[in-house]
């Protein structure tokens, strides 16, 4: 009985395991089958969708083909001329960026382009290099026709203990004009200040017609040495009349009658001032005020005129008028003129002699108009 029971149990268990395996196999197989079926279905469906999308886009493109072609044709027709112009502009831009040989030879105001723009440091370095080969004293003598009426010899001068001018020399013949140009801080105005006695002179000598005037005071320079200093601007007394301003120029004469007679000579020479003799100087135009400043210096009948920036703050028409007055004083009255002028082109065109100052030394010296043609002067100081 026990053996039968065990056999039944064993026979009963085997079919259960086999059934479980069969069920597991059946359940797994359908799952795998379903996945593969899904994949197949998905594979079939996805291309169908993509094809559908492509067909749709193809249809859209087909629909849009005609308008796109027409629009592109129209644009192409409209833009034909501008495209050519753009090419021309690009060519012009390239040619502008590469200056021609003719452009390089030109010098003076307005001749340069962006390619000639230089930094202040670069200008200073190149100018210093030029200054190391500066003119000799014999070169300066030749410019003064070997007959210097006004002369500076190895002048060292400055303000306080600071030396601005380093062994500076100058030669000017009687009745000649000399213009000083150069970068800011080169010492141009210091030359005029030193001549008139406004600086400390450490060494050197200033002579007029062989007479040493180095240590004279400014008042003595005007009354004894015949040197008049015409300041930059705004040196008139605006509340005083034109006539009173002129009489102030003769205060060193000590005799009012002589100053009055000198003022009348100025009025005879310049009718523009004579017409306004009783009007306040404050109502004068810029050019008329500059004329008054120059005329006031003439009351003392000087032989040498120091003119500091004659064109400063003036309109072009008044600048021409001032230089015409200076030309008349030089050529007609025989005045010797030494000027500082920031408008280098105007100053050099006017002057018989031009000096280019760099760091308190003379870098170049030549006839004024020849300096205008000098490529180094044009490149460093005239903008082209």
Report on the structure:
With 384 residues, the chain is an alpha/beta fold. The chain folds into 2 domains: 2-80; 114-381, 3-Layer(aba) Sandwich (Rossmann fold). The chain contains 15 helices and 10 strands. The protein has helices at 2-78, 80-97, 101-105, 120-131, 137-143, 188-196, 218-223, 242-248, 256-269, 271-274, 286-298, 316-331, 344-350, 368-373, 375-381, and strands at 148-159, 162-173, 177-181, 200-208, 211-212, 227-230, 304-308, 336-340, 353-358, 361-367. Strand 4 and strand 5 form a beta hairpin. The radius of gyration is 47 Å and the shape is globular. The termini are far apart.
What key phrases describe this protein's structure?
384 residues, alpha/beta, Rossmann fold, six-stranded mixed sheet, four-stranded antiparallel sheet, 10 strands, 54% helix, disordered N terminus
Q: Give the CATH class of the largest domain.
A: Alpha Beta
Structural class of the helix and strand makeup?
A: alpha/beta
CATH homology group of the largest domain = P-loop containing nucleotide triphosphate hydrolases
Q: What's the architecture of the largest domain in CATH terms?
A: 3-Layer(aba) Sandwich
CATH topology group of the largest domain: Rossmann fold
């Amino acid at each position: 009985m026990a053996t039968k029971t065990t056999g039944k149990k064993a026979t009963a268990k085997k079919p259960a395991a086999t059934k479980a395996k069969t069920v597991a196999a059946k359940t797994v197989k359908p799952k795998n089958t379903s996945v593969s079926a899904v994949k197949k279905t998905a594979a079939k469906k996805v291309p169908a969708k993509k094809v559908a999308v492509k067909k749709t886009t193809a249809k859209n493109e087909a629909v849009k083909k005609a308008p796109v072609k027409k629009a592109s044709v129209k644009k192409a027709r409209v833009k034909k001329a501008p495209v050519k112009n753009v090419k021309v502009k690009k060519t012009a831009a390239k040619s502008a960026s590469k200056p021609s040989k003719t452009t390089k030879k030109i010098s003076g105001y307005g001749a340069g382009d962006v390619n000639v723009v230089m930094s202040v440091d670069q200008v200073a370095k190149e100018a210093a290099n030029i200054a190391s080969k500066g003119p000799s004293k014999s070169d300066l003598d030749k410019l003064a026709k070997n007959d210097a009426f006004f002369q500076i010899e190895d002048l060292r001068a400055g303000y306080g203990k600071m030396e601005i001018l380093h062994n500076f020399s100058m030669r000017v013949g009687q009745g000649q004009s000399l213009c000083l140009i150069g970068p800011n801080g080169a010492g141009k105005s210091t030359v005029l200040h030193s001549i008139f006695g406004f600086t400390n002179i450490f060494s050197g000598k200033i002579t007029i017609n062989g007479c040493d005037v180095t240590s004279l005071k400014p008042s003595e320079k005007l009354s004894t040495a015949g040197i008049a200093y015409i300041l930059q601007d705004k040196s008139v007394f605006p509340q005083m009349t034109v006539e009173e301003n002129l009489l102030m120029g003769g205060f060193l004469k000590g005799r009012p009658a002589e100053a009055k007679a000198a003022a009348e000579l100025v009025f005879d020479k310049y009718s523009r001032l004579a017409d306004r003799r009783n009007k306040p100087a404050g109502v004068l135009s810029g050019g008329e005020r500059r004329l008054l400043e120059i005329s006031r210096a003439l009351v003392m009948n000087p032989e040498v005129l120091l003119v500091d920036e004659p064109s400063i703050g003036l309109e072009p028409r008044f600048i021409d008028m001032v230089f015409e007055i200076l030309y008349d004083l030089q050529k007609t009255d025989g005045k010797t003129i030494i000027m500082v002028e920031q408008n280098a082109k105007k100053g050099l065109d006017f002057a018989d002699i031009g000096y280019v100052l760099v760091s308190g030394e003379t870098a170049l010296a030549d006839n004024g108009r020849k300096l205008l043609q000098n490529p180094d002067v044009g490149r460093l100081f005239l903008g082209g």
